[in-house]
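Lecture notes, unit on protein representations.

Consider one protein chain, 147 amino acids long.
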Amino acid sequence: SATLKMKVQTDNISFPSEVTGLKDITEVLIHKFNNSYENIYTICLADTLKQDNNIICCRWLVGMTEKSSGSTRVGFGEYKWSFVDNGTCLVDHLTIVIENMVVLPGEAQHEMMSWLGNLSYPWASSSDVLTSVPDIALLSELRNNLA
């Protein structure tokens, strides 16, 4: 009965706005996603972690390569997990906000994957990410968001 809500604020990636049930959530987040992308790094920003009763939120950064074109995608947003309040620690709702997703040309792949691979994984501080972001103009919004 869990639900996934996707708030996509960019045209560079698409997801259904809402999905219900383990089978359908797995299909969207695992199967379909992995059919299109590889070399996926999701970094949660530890200094943005907030907890309020059974809700946990944090900012995130993702980088990946597109299988069909070789292009690299880098995006950021927020996770908001809501846990069942019965002691089982099961997630009953997840909201993923995708604020931006930048598509970089294939020749940026090595530099981007090297950068992502050298970050603390899966948790990093915003300042560590910010100080190491490659100097690529298309990443200016990411830099501004982390600052």
